[in-house]
UniProtKB/TrEMBL annotation:
<dbReference type="InterPro" id="IPR043141">
    <property type="entry name" value="Ribosomal_uL10-like_sf"/>
</dbReference>
<dbReference type="GO" id="GO:0006412">
    <property type="term" value="P:translation"/>
</dbReference>
<keyword id="KW-0689">Ribosomal protein</keyword>
<dbReference type="GO" id="GO:0015934">
    <property type="term" value="C:large ribosomal subunit"/>
</dbReference>
<dbReference type="InterPro" id="IPR001790">
    <property type="entry name" value="Ribosomal_uL10"/>
</dbReference>
<comment type="subunit">
    <text>Part of the ribosomal stalk of the 50S ribosomal subunit. The N-terminus interacts with L11 and the large rRNA to form the base of the stalk. The C-terminus forms an elongated spine to which L12 dimers bind in a sequential fashion forming a multimeric L10(L12)X complex.</text>
</comment>
<dbReference type="InterPro" id="IPR002363">
    <property type="entry name" value="Ribosomal_uL10_CS_bac"/>
</dbReference>
<keyword id="KW-0699">rRNA-binding</keyword>
<dbReference type="GO" id="GO:0070180">
    <property type="term" value="F:large ribosomal subunit rRNA binding"/>
</dbReference>
<keyword id="KW-0694">RNA-binding</keyword>
<dbReference type="InterPro" id="IPR022973">
    <property type="entry name" value="Ribosomal_uL10_bac"/>
</dbReference>
<keyword id="KW-0687">Ribonucleoprotein</keyword>
<comment type="function">
    <text>Forms part of the ribosomal stalk, playing a central role in the interaction of the ribosome with GTP-bound translation factors.</text>
</comment>
<dbReference type="Pfam" id="PF00466">
    <property type="entry name" value="Ribosomal_L10"/>
</dbReference>
<protein>
    <recommendedName>
        <fullName>Large ribosomal subunit protein uL10</fullName>
    </recommendedName>
</protein>
<dbReference type="InterPro" id="IPR047865">
    <property type="entry name" value="Ribosomal_uL10_bac_type"/>
</dbReference>
<dbReference type="GO" id="GO:0003735">
    <property type="term" value="F:structural constituent of ribosome"/>
</dbReference>
Length: 170
């Protein structure tokens, strides 16, 4: 990489750090190309991104962002996962690490809050943003459905009574 490519890489990472909700730092302990590709696909499916970056360039990109605290974690062969959904990157990284012993979760950050490995695993156990939205819509929709059933029930009972009188008279 020449100097201009490094400057572009730092600027791109800095822009990413200013937009995302969570960054997860992983350590790659000899992953094969196929395993890295599988991890990237899993991240993409979850709505997250995974990238291996030079530690020095990543440290420069962390400056003037909420993720400055991650600088201490950037030692050795590390990869960065990020997403706008606060749970997606953590969940994908933890699930992949369960099936692949060559990926180790180092820690991460949600904004200015630095998380250790246990914090990332706890974050991964939470429901995703889409799951929370579905639950919220279900909770909001349930009372409306019950109100509609209660309101229509008396009219249905009255109609059945009239039908019974009509059948009796005939």
């Amino acid at each position: 990489m020449d100097r201009s490519q490094k400057a572009d890489a730092v600027a791109q990472l800095n822009a990413v750090f200013n937009e995302v909700s969570v960054v997860v730092v992983t350590r790659n302990l000899g992953m094969t190309v196929a395993q890295s590709t599988a991890l990237r696909l899993k991240m993409r499916d979850a709505g997250a991104t995974y990238k291996v970056a030079k530690n020095r360039l990543a440290n420069l990109a962390l400056e003037n962002t909420d993720y400055v605290g991650l600088g201490d974690m950037l030692t050795g062969p590390v990869g960065l996962a990020w997403s706008t959904d606060p749970v997606a990157a953590a969940k994908a990284a933890v699930e992949f690490a369960k099936t692949n012993d060559k990926l180790e979760i180092v820690g991460g950050s949600m904004g200015s809050v630095v998380l250790d490995e246990a914090g990332i695993k706890a974050l991964a156990s939470m429901p995703s943003l889409d799951e929370l939205r579905a639950k919220l819509i279900g909770l909001v929709n349930a009372p409306a459905t019950k109100i509609a059933q209660v309101v229509t029930a008396p009219a249905a009972k009255v109609a059945r009574v009239f039908a019974a009188y009509a059948d009796k008279a005939a």
